[in-house]
Design a protein that fits this description.
Shape: globular
Strand content: 25-35%
CATH superfamily of one domain: tt1808, chain A
Distance between the termini: 45 Å
CATH class of one domain: Alpha Beta
CATH topology of one domain: tt1808, chain A
Radius of gyration: 15 Å
Helix content: 25-40%
CATH architecture of one domain: Alpha-Beta Complex
């Protein structure tokens, strides 16, 4: 199934799952959780605050890769990226500069590693991984970073607990 068909299919629009496609056009789904949503919202807020209007922060960002469409949990696109690709895309032909995946119980380490490589293959400059405990890891195409090179003040741990 092509991504455009997935997006336009009315029977798929209200599923409580994140939908992606694999390299053969088959739909892959992962269940949503409140914990995942809380991390996603917190990361979005941090990026929005730190980006200072120099780009756009989005959630559920569909990116065409060599193995189908992958949907980044959170992504940051610079103004230059927005000028190049616009804002009304069913999927992006290349990755935004920063993509973030949030680990969930249904993810395997191999799956997250593959996503990291797929995003870098199509232009990501950084890949961030938020673990189930809120610990953050930052990568560029050369390997792991101590902190993000784009957002140096981004915390190494996201706390979603109510104070």
């Amino acid at each position: 199934m092509e991504w455009e068909e997935v997006v336009k299919d009315p029977s798929l629009k209200d599923l409580p799952f994140k939908i992606e496609t694999n390299e053969w056009g088959k739909i892959m789904m992962a269940p949503a959780s409140d914990t995942h949503a809380l991390y996603q919202g917190s990361i979005f807020e941090w990026l929005l605050r730190l980006s200072g209007g120099k780009g756009k922060v989005v959630t559920e960002c569909p990116v065409q890769t060599s193995k189908g469409v992958r949907v980044a949990d959170v992504a940051w696109r610079s103004r230059a990226f927005l000028k190049k690709h616009g804002i009304r895309n069913l999927k992006l032909p290349e990755s935004p500069e920063v993509v973030v995946e949030i680990e969930s119980p249904s993810n395997t380490a191999a799956e997250l590693e593959e996503k990291r490589h797929l995003y870098f293959e199509v232009g990501a400059r950084e890949f961030w991984l938020c673990h189930e405990n809120g610990n953050m890891r930052f990568f560029n195409p050369q390997g792991e970073l101590k902190i993000s090179e784009f957002f140096r003040e981004f915390p190494g741990h996201i706390d979603i607990e109510v104070a």
